[in-house]
Amino acid sequence: xxxxxxxxxxxxxxxxxxxxxxxxxxxxxxxxxxxxxxxxxxxxxxxxxxxxxxxxxxxxxxxxxxxxxxxxxxxxxxxxxxxxxxxxxxxxxxxxxxxxxxxxxxxxxxxxxxxxxxxxxxxxxxxxxxxxxxxxxxxxxxxxxxxxxxxxxxxxxxxxxxxxxxxxxxxxxxxxxxxxxxxxxxxxxxxxxxxxxxxxxxxxxxxxxxxxxxxxxxxxxxxxxxxxxxxxxxxxxxxxxxxxxxxx
Length: 248
Ligand code: SAM
Known about the structure:
This protein is an alpha/beta fold. Helices cover 37% and strands 14% of the residues.
């Protein structure tokens, strides 16, 4: 997967995206992250990339031309128009299923807005997906782009050393993951659940499934409506269409 991040602040990406699991994935050639500095494409002699909003109001608006030319430089390099994500609080909220969907692409472009946002006309021209990372307003799209790249990359085969860990995490089947424990067996007067040391994999699986359902019911009752539960599980854990969406 090749990521192209159109940004005014490429230095923000440097440290974060090239370390840890993503850094290793880059070394293995599974992903490639390229920050494209929008300012390099301005035709303004003072290197300006923003201007006052037509109609008045606070703040500045990122202009269409430098963004479009930065985007064209990417499309010329790869030879086609790839899916292009505009990070915006106005988009549908990013989800694990969207991460999986985007992980199937060969190239992805991310456009990071700043200030009051971006001239609408260039968005109409290049954006295929509008995505928000939550109902709050940030100063720029760089952090959201990094959040998305992290989540998408984990879904690319080979990025996680243990493939299974990407498949059995929170939001799979619309359930949260069960609680995790490690050594020592007793810490601060609290013991880890005995069953996890029993060596009985079937019983451990049943216990984890139960914990997942209870945890989802407690913290994310809204997810339960969509969860993959058997009829028996629905009855045992008191889950029905009415209870989903209500706190317990
Ligand atoms: N004026 C815009 C509005 O009210 O919708 C908000 C602009 S915001 C201050 C600047 C930039 O940050 C946006 O263009 C977008 O790229 C990014 N941004 C802010 N909040 C975001 C969020 N929740 N999800 C994704 N991107 C966000």
